[in-house]
Design a protein that fits this description.
Strand content of chain A: 15-25%
Oligomer: homodimer
Shape of chain A: globular
Number of strands of chain A: 8
InterPro entries (chains A, B): DtxR_MntR_Metal-Reg, Fe-transptr_FeoA-like, Fe_dep_repressor, Fe_dep_repressor_sf, FeoA_core_dom, HTH_DTXR, Iron_dep_repressor, Transcriptional_repressor_C
Main location (chains A, B): cytoplasm
Family (chains A, B): Belongs to the DtxR/MntR family.
Largest interface: A-B, 19 and 19 residues
Radius of gyration of chain A: 19 Å
Keywords (chains A, B): Activator, Cytoplasm, DNA-binding, Iron, Manganese, Repressor, Transcription, Transcription regulation
Order of helices and strands of chain A: HHHEEHHHEEHEEEHE
CATH architecture of one domain in chain A: Roll
Largest sheet of chain A: 6 strands, antiparallel
CATH class of one domain in chain A: Mainly Beta
Bound molecules: manganese (II) ion
Function (chains A, B): In the presence of manganese, represses expression of mntH and mntS. Up-regulates expression of mntP.
CATH topology of one domain in chain A: SH3 type barrels
DNA sequence: TTTATTTTTTAGACCGATCTAAAAATTGAC
DNA sequence: GTCAATTTTTAGATCGGTCTAAAAAATAAA
């Protein structure tokens, strides 16, 4: 049984390692957890003795098989709760993350399976991120960053990379949502900003930063 | 801001004091919290400095106005979540308490108001207990213990006093539920057990203990 | 390849929540 | 009203999670 804090560390390690493919360094983890390197070293030893990660002094940590499964279950809960908050309780997509950070730690396998049933086994959360299934399997949909797309090509918004409330609110305001059809009508060489149309109608300018945080498919 | 543990203590104090009407002694609180008297003394001092209770050495604690409001909000959350689990997620009424013990600590006023809206502002939880409203107001329905009722009188089950899973499962098994109509057809002098009919049909015997944990109205 | 910089770990402390053991206050019995 | 039993509080320790400051290792620069 992992503590609240241990679960958060593990989730961070999973994300920072790109799903367990790379090692995670102490300082990177400290920054993402808003804590100090010394605290990370302590926690990392604990997670290591619990078999969640393998830890080699000065070389960072790698998530283990069980650790990965554990992390995916927390992510599953997080994303199912976010979906519930938006679909069922009418939250806006920029309001759900903080609450889901709490709800993801509720311990009840029955609850999460019933929630999943109730929601109709959604495959993605309100931000377009895939929801791992009961077995921890995650179906990644091939998608590319908007700013890399060709001019005049119709693409569909699939996910946001940065899910910060301010970015999400901005997207809502200009009319961009998951499932929207975008077309790049012009690229500004100077600053990387784009002129796009949304659903073939509205024409807006978005910054390079915004364009780099939208994931789309053709 | 109260910690997880402080919230649990406060809720216990509220219940043990019958909604703030009596003082609560250290040992009583220790027993209900499954902890030691020494730990209670520590916690009680902390809750006192936070203004949730007034504490007088050797004479127990009394809940304050703010403490009561705080306790009622936790109870509101607990009971709304229990209602959600049964009504929306199809839990049985004996499966919800433990999960609600966790969910009641989620911090998000927006969440609880949206949940309340979604459920249609229920007035009682799956065990018949009243749900405090947004302002902390609680509508107690006058009800009596089944074992005190007269013979042959039709009464309606309103709530259970003891909500333990085993009792609830037993009730389900014999066909007793919130809203069922019961009639006492015989009282056994010797052991206080009752012979009753459920909804005018099924005839069963229940023990004194069971009869003392069923709340009914006429 | 020696030195300087950066990263990471260790040592030692603090805080919140808990415990055991011992002291103090209250209550009950005679 | 005194003494014994019960209840409650204090004292001191532990554990998990965090911190700062200092030591050690790894990396980069000269
Ligand atoms: Mn999120
Ligand atoms: Mn999300
Ligand atoms: Mn309950
Ligand atoms: Mn209940």
């Amino acid at each position: 049984m992992l503590s609240f804090t241990e679960e958060n560390y593990l989730k961070s390690i999973y994300h920072l390692s790109n799903g367990g493919t790379q090692a995670v360094l102490t300082n990177a983890l400290a920054e993402s957890m808003n804590t100090k390197a010394a605290s990370v070293t302590d926690m990392v030893k604990k997670l290591s003795t619990k078999g969640m990660i393998s830890y080699e002094k000065y070389y960072g940590v790698k998530i283990t098989r069980v650790g990965k499964t554990e992390a995916l279950m927390i992510i599953r809960k997080h994303r199912l709760w976010e979906t519930f908050l938006v679909q069922t309780l009418q939250f806006n997509w920029d309001e759900v993350h903080e609450v889901a950070e709490q709800l993801e730690h509720i311990q009840s396998p029955l609850l999460i399976e019933k929630l999943d049933d109730f929601l109709g086994h959604p495959r993605t959360d309100p931000h377009g991120h895939p929801i791992p299934d009961k077995a921890g399997k995650i179906v990644e949909i091939k998608q590319v960053i908007l700013s890399t797309c060709a001019l005049r090509k119709k693409v569909m918004v699939r996910a946001v990379r940065n899910g910060s409330p301010s970015f999400l609110q901005y997207l809502s305001k200009i009319g961009v949502y998951i499932g929207a059809t975008l077309t790049i009508v012009d690229k500004v060489e100077f600053d990387g900003s784009l002129e796009i149309t949304i659903d073939g109608k509205k024409k807006v300018f978005i910054s390079r930063d915004a364009a780099e945080n939208l994931m789309v498919t053709e």
